[in-house]
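Q: Can I see a sequence and its folded structure?
A: Here is a first one.
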Amino acid sequence: MSAVLSIQGLTKHFGKIKAVNDLYLEVRSGQVFGVLGPNGSGKTTTLGMLMGVTNPTSGSFTWFGEEPTPALRRKIGAVLEHPIFYPYLSGQRNLELNAMIKQCPVENIPRVLELVELTDRKDDKYKTYSLGMKQRLAIASALLNDPTVLILDEPTNGLDPMGIAEIRSIIRKIAAQGKTIILASHLLDEVQKVCTHFAVLKKGSLVHTGPVADVGQGEVIVEVNAAKGNLQDVLLQFQGCASIVHENESYQVLMREGFHGDDLNRFLFERGIVATHLVTRKKSLEQQFLEILSEHH
């Protein structure tokens, strides 16, 4: 499992607004990685930097262990804004034009149409397509040059329940082919249904990252703080720690099954650390994320 994307201290300020603040992330090969956060949390800005649409204020990132170059970016397909499609041309013709622009073989078109389930509508004019079909054509276009990585920004935004279900099933299908997918969303439900791993952004800062499978696990959360610089590193060594969220000046430690606050307290004490604050809260990660996502600031 090699790192497809490695982000180090990525930061983007627009004037006084810190859109993305000191972001560290790693996405590995074959993961479906969700970037979860409310609108305005920096998801789109982050994807824009990764695709070279905007330049970072500071920090860096590598794709496949290399500095990003135009040639390297060709291994990445992205659906960020709506691609340029002509309303009076068919889906097929639109893809042929996109293939020309991207300099990739038109022979790839039937395969991508099949994948996004538009084969039977390929000769219909784009303007007759539903919103869900337009989004599927955009995904098909991003897959034309057979990229290793697919980036999707809010892929189901504005779609009806059926359109949402179709896009999600297509994402799963693409992932099953072994492609790495990075997906931004403000819906916890979406991330839980299609992603393997995820990160949560809040006002441009990373508050959590880990496997999606952990979200429903171990309901016990211990809120802890201590007068120690690298407390987070120490907490990560605690074998009862499933994951950590840094919030309101303290650390929320999600306990693995069978571990409790007193185990954590003893662990810290044995390392000469006295907790200034240690409270056991029974709050699932899911509830925490829903709270973060519902904060409209």
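Q: Show me another, different protein.
A: A second, unrelated one:
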Amino acid sequence: MKTNTQEKQVIEVLRQEGGYATLKRLNEIMDFSTWKTKTPEASVRRIVQVSNHIFRIQPGLWALKEMREEVLKHLELNEGNKKSEEIFTHSYYQGLLVEIGKFRKQNTYIPAQDKNRKFIDQCLGEITDTTTLPNFTYDNLLRKAKTVDVIWFNERNMPSNFYEIEHTTDIKNSLSKFYELQDFHAGFYIVADRCRKGEFEDKLHVSMFAPIENRVKFLDYLHVVEMYEGMKIINNSMWL
């Protein structure tokens, strides 16, 4: 009975939020005062995963089945349309990386052509610090950097991390960008589903990418979501 009561509370909060919310958002606004558990956030995670009334839109993003059609229309997500799903997924992880970067007091950048794409229900341009690339290097290198999906800049407007999100596109193209930008003291990350890690390693460990093969890291989607959900206790060393 206790679980049913807690599940009803989660469902009601989702309903109040318009039928959808991130797990992070749920844990921020849930009233846990009547929950007799030391780990209410873990309970919410379990509830959204097992409830017959809730479905997953993306890792970390949940919605009510009773409002499925309404929610997907609001989020401009055409279920079953491969192109629509790819755009939503790409923008979703761009948004997560932007939010994590801002939490870490980094200045965040996305390409200007992405500013009107949606991170859940907000335009990426509304949550990102800038869509104008700082003039931190030569023009030819700026042209390469300009197309990187997410860049974090430090207080001196120098890049600290470059992120390329690879949902279905060729990882080699992103590695080529990182190769051109290798002289910067910055982190290079390929963000993708964990099923692409083998492909990432195969393409990274070829002779042409030897100068950067020990610098480029693979971040799977679930790890990015976990970092977003745990921003209150983020461990900076994980990103060095």
